[in-house]
Amino acid sequence: MDIKKRIEQLSTELLRHQHLYYVKAEPEISDLEYDRLFDELVELEKKYPQLAWPNSPTKRVGSDLDNTFPEKEHTLPVLSLDKQYTIEELEKWVSKTINNAGQALSFVVEEKIDGASIVLYYKNGSLESALTRGNGVVGNDVIENVRTIKQVPLVTGETSNFAVRSEIFIKKSDFGTYNQTFENKYANPRNLAAGSLRNIKSSVVAKVPLNIFSYEGFFETAFTNDHILILSRLKELGFRINRNMGFFSASKNMVATVQGKLPEIAAGHIGDLSDYVRERLGERNRLDYEIDGLVIKVNELDVRDGLGYTAHHPRWALAFKFDAPTAQTRLLDVQVQVGRNGRVTPVGILEPVKIAGSTVARATLHNQEYIDMLELGSGDTVSISKRGDIIPAVEKVIEKDPDHPSIFKFPETCPFCLSSLVKDGAHHFCKNRECPERIKRSISYFAAKDQMDIDTLGWKTIAFLFDKGYIKGIPDLYTFDYNELLNEEGFKEKKIANIKKSVENSKKKPFRKVLTSLGFDGLGTSAVSDLIKNGFYSMDRIIEAASRRDVEIFSNIEGFGEIMGQLVIRHFTDPENLALIEELRKIGLSFEERVEKPQEAEALTFKDQVWVITGSFEHFNPRSKAAEEIEKRGGKVVGSVSTRTTHVLVGASPGSKLDKAKKLDIPIIDETEFLKMLG
Ligand code: IVH
């Protein structure tokens, strides 16, 4: 036989057997037979080096020649991912993404492997280069070392050019042994994997049991609009795809397709995504490789293009990270803050430390129970974490202060007014409504950006005005003559003019802002919006209804209940609150919100009805539009089916809510019928 042919035959066969053995774990021939073929190829390549394939299976053993890692340009942008740390944020991201896309979407949930990132470039079916991430534009070609990883296909059946993003890692159980051979110089499996890829002798790398998972494919010739089908194709081509993966879609067809193509992965309705994420979180420690989170990706490639990129991240993917960034520092002191409603919160004052790019000097300590649980005292060395944008939290004590070990105890009295603190549930309260700190906090809350937005009056200025006796309460913000401040240091004419202007501007704020800015317990943005939606669109309407002291008037509002009903009555019958409200009325703040015309005009044809919506719709996308129509007509929309549900609106690919509705015999309305009902 012709030598060239034989080399080709042996190379192809050996690569196939390597794949069967190392990726599929289903060898077809004995080790002995394999070695015979391998040795034959080695011999032939030695004699006829010009005929050897650059991606010959013999390259797997590496070479003793010193490797160089030439810099090469990536032909695709190698971006990193935006991250979140809580399931709530993840859910927000999912619904925001669906909204931005303006269509029903499918999501793929993958493990975020904590290894070394690599991009494999294939030309004419053959591995051409293997670039590290580098700076995202230029990486190092470490192909000689990557060839030694038996799980990496060197030659594939795909002839159009393509690139594959993958992660190279070493198993936890292999880390100890192989770190020893490198004199334990690597701190963790990730560093050992990344270090191996940069080892100048590929013969050394060949002995390290490196693994690979591939997770993104870019084909010059497009053949699908689904990421999941790209993965399925990569699998066919011999790439190692992680089986711990989830596919969640509103489309039953897509779910079925995926179950057919990749039966080993979890596939379900989009509503099941969060539960899957929770489940994977629990499995993390059982894996023999390190993951630092999950990656949630939009499946539809055209939607990905539409969503695009920020300067750093794609908008179509999110890393859900398991561990928030942490740092170590010392707790210098615990200060006690008193809020506008009297709640006392301990705040940890920290030795400033950098965490996730910003300097942190304070941390919330929640309450006495939390402090007792941590056994925390001033002087202790602590670890702190930052999840999302929330204020950092003290996670644990690493070492007690060796000189003065202590546990912080709440004072018995309010540090600002000296009245006794009262414990209510987990929290302590200052019950004194005249407490200067509480008043300052409520004025500052009123003026805050999210409320009346008097941006010239920050906490410091308000505290100053109050302490000096210029203002005593919220109405004084409007009646005080700010010219009096000309004698005070730091108050020039320009500054005073700006204050006056922003105070005056705040008078234009709508009623709903006025109401929330009063800072009444329980009356945040969404509760106020519910009040207004339910006919309480003016201060007088609320006060009049409250004066009847009939809890049901308010507790019947969707989402309110008994406790909220009582709160509203308490706030709006309290003489001090009513006096404050009267003063603000005189000042001319908005006390009424005109409800939009169509809402008034709509007859309340859905009155007393309780609807649940499931699935996706042609005319109501996002489906909150359907909810609006129901609410406009006096109906309620709730999240889950119960015996109180009167109608279930069902669109395409409904979730388990439909089954429940059937079980409970609740009328099921489809989109056509719904449109008829709307008239
Ligand atoms: S997708 C543009 N999927 O995490 C999308 N990345 O910050 C690119 N990683 O550099 C990333 N497992 O090294 C993706 N299943 C996965 C991943 C994954 C690990 C790494 C990757 C990347 C970093 C993202």
Blueprint of the fold:
Blueprint (H helix, E strand, L loop, with lengths): L2 H20 L8 H17 L23 E3 L9 E2 L2 H15 L4 E8 L2 E8 L2 E7 L5 E3 L2 H4 L15 E9 L1 H10 L7 H9 L4 H4 L4 E10 L7 H10 L8 E5 L2 H10 L4 E4 L3 H11 L7 E8 L2 H7 L9 E5 L4 E13 L4 E13 L2 E7 L3 H7 L6 E5 L7 E7 L21 E4 L2 E4 L5 H12 L11 H9 L8 H4 L13 H14 L4 H7 L7 H9 L5 H9 L3 H5 L5 H11 L3 H13 L9 H5 L8 E5 L9 H9 L3 E3 L8 E4 L5 H8 L4 E3 H8 L1
Parallel strand pairs: 2-12, 9-10, 20-21, 20-22, 22-23
Antiparallel strand pairs: 1-6, 3-9, 3-11, 4-5, 4-7, 7-8, 11-12, 13-14, 13-16, 14-15, 14-19, 16-17, 18-19
Helix pairs in contact: 1-2, 13-14, 17-18
The structure holds 2-(butylsulfanyl)adenosine.
The site of 2-(butylsulfanyl)adenosine has 15 residues, from strand 3, strand 8 and strand 12.
